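Incident review: delayed structure delivery

Summary: a single-chain prediction request sat in the queue longer than the usual turnaround. Root cause was a stuck worker, restarted by the on-call engineer. No data loss occurred. The affected request and its eventual output are reproduced below so the record is complete for anyone auditing the incident later.

Affected input:
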Amino acid sequence: MSNISDLRDAAPEWYEARKVEFQGRGYPSLGEVPENTTYKSRQSTLFKTGTEREEIRKAFFADPRSEPANLTATEISAWGRELRERVQANIPPADFLTDREIALMRARFERPRARR
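Output delivered after worker restart:
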């Protein structure tokens, strides 16, 4: 019995928490879950006044990236084709074994296995 108590004393510090977890104790009941009181204050920050919305709108349109595209649909398609061709040109050719090469390798390396 003294060996068992010695083992319990030498247990790592996480052991007690894990033991409580396995016994099903230590979990809060659903009635004890605290209410989130910050939700209403966080939700109120989503609504902006008219002047704040106007400032955001001006900042958006002042950014050069917000300018509309000046290309037509056919020009955009041509640009996409050109870009695709440039990418395809950089892909190296496939270097796979042919079916004949695979058959030759199998014939060379597949040997009956010794059995006792």
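Verification: The radius of gyration is 35 Å.
Action items: add queue-age alerting; document worker restart procedure.
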